[in-house]
Each structure stands twice: as structure tokens, then as C-alpha cells.
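Q: Structure for this?
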Amino acid sequence: MSERDPLEVFSRVNPFAGEVDAYTEADEARLLSIIATPVTAGGRRPSRRRLVVVVGVGVVVVATAAFALLRREQASDPTGVACFATADLNADIVVLGPSPDPVAACATVWSDGRLSADGPPQLTACVNDSGVASVFPGDPSVCSELGLAELVPGRSAEHQAIVDLQQRMAEFYSADCYRQPEALATAQQLLDESGLTGWSVQLAEDFPPGFECGIATPLADARTVIVGGGRPAP
Amino acid sequence: MRAGRDGQFEAVYRECLRDVKLYARARVGRDHEDDVVNATFLSVWQRLDEIPWPSRRAWVLGVCRNHCRNRWRADRRFAALVDEVIAARPALELGLSTDGWDIDAVAALAAVLPNLSLDDRELFVLSAWLGMMPSEIAETLGVPAGRVRVRLHRLRVVLAHHLGVDAVRDGTA
């Protein structure tokens, strides 16, 4: 990395660094205290019985609110799918590539244990504030409860072109090692061939040592193809 | 080193403790740092079996981030970060600190930090101070890596402007 990289210059201006580096007696005491804490497996989730009671009490209110707030729209960013562990925008997520069926894609994540040891629950696809398809556990009312629109399946022609470009770029850049100038030129060529208009190619940062081979991906919201160093040279 | 589950936790704890302390201190300040660090590693202990081992650092930082976000009001986010850097400037100018800081860089950072958005301050801490790669930051924030690269590019432009250097170039082919 260059001496003139501002992040590197500012990395040396850190008022906390010296103070947090040391492993103190308090740190060791914390470690011992935590290890002595019983593990409560599954403690994060409410029991089935409790869940039924909550749903039973709130069903009229929730149903009314959901009907009043229901919105449905397509994802404006088709380049990925976010799978949420709980019906909470702050929950753990797994980000996947594009999929024509976000619910089925996230069900696979649940089935292979990446979000839970349990099998997939009922899942519903919404659209988050960034326009990305976001799949939550719950029935279709979960979208309105989170203030989100319910996802309308399908893609416009432009979205299909973005997804096709994303897949083409993934194939190109995984098949060969494109160093920085070639990676930029290849991205521009693939963008030109995609038929997308009003887009540009941008370098995220100079390829750092150890990441000599480029990767490129379209960012729908910025109408930009971003190019960066992604992996070491073979 | 301990054996079994205790040993696995101890390894994660020792490996990630510095990063969690630094992130927590920058975000919620010294008064609440301990609470966040305790809550973070208690969550890690309870969910040890869920940790994606190859990306454990990003995962633990994500847990820490959630505890910060859930417990403290937005107006306190990264206030400590700004205060500490600004407070360091006069001390350096008076020659009270000799730990090798570049006084011009401190002045530049003190000028730019208050003007960064909360998201950019977070990005700065993760990238500059924790040395995380864009892919790690993406896992911590739960957003695509490409988006992180774009945001880092923009952040570099802003920081370079305050440093008075031409550190970022357009990448248009």
C-alpha cells in the first residue's frame, strides 16, 4: 500500500491503540467469569408455547396493521439476496448471490445449518431499504411489521441484464488472473456488451500486494461496475 | 490454553479482544466499553457452535456492533472517537506526547472526523484502525463486499482531500 494512502496514514493516528493492546488482569477475570457461565442452548428463541400465546393475543391488531401497511414491489437491486436469522433488521444475515427465487435460496441456507441448527421455518421475502430482496422467518405479515414492502417476484429486462453481467463477470474473473489494467479494460468490455446504459467502471482501490488478480461486480444502486483486487496471483 | 469448548472460546477471546475493545471504545466511549466487551463475549460463549471459523473475527465484530447498536442511543455513536482525536491535538502541539504520531495527520484527522457520517466513521475504524479487508468489513456489516469497496473509495477521497494529497485516482477504463 502506498505511503500516500490516507487510510494508512491515519491508521497510525490511533489514540486507543496503546491502551487496548495489553492483556490485563481484568481481561483474564472476564474470561474466567464467562467460561463459568452455563450455556443456555436455544435460549435466544422463544418457546413454541410462548410464541402461540403472543400470536393469539396480537392477531387482530397485527392483521389490521398489516393490511393497512401492505406494500408490494420488485427488488431494485437484483445482485444479491439477504437471508435473516430472525424477523429483525438487526439479526444475523447470510448474503447470497442473485436468485430468481429468494425464498428457496434462503431455505437452502437454513437447511445446511448456516442460520440455525433447526430446519427452515416459514420464510417470506421482503425488499429492504436498499432495494435488496431480504428473506425473513415468518408469514407475509413480517414485511409490514418491519416497515418493508413484500417482494414481487420477477425481474425487469434491465435487472436481468445486471444479473447476467454479474454472472459473466464472475465467470471471467474466476477463469483467469486479470491484473489491474486488464481487469479494468475487461470490465468495460463486458459492460459495453451488456447493453446497460448510463453505467461506468470504477476502480475501488489499487490492487494491494497479495491481491494481484482482479474481480468485478455491478452495483445496481450506483450504476457502477466496481473493480478491485480479489485474490493472489497463481 | 484450555481444552475443548473452553479452549476454543479462549482462542477466539484472545484473538479478538483487542479489536472488540478498540471498536467499543471508539463507538460508545470508555465509560461503557466494559459493558459492551462483556456482553459481546458472553454472546460469543453462548453461540460458540455457530461461529463461522474462517471468518470468526468479522463475526465477533458483528456481534459487538449489534450490542453497541442495541444498547446505546445514536447520538453517542463514535462520539468518543472524535473527542479523543481532537483532545490529542493540543497535547501533541505542546510536545506532551512522543509516541511517533504525525502532527499534521492528527490535525487533519481532527478536522475531518467531525464531518464524517456515522457510517463513514465506522468504516474508518474498521479499515484504518482494525486493518480489516473489504471482504471482512462486508461480513461484519452484512453488506456486499462491492458496496464496501465503493464506500472505501469515497472515504479515501474525503480523507485525501484533508491530507492535501492526491491519493485516489479514477479507475474508469
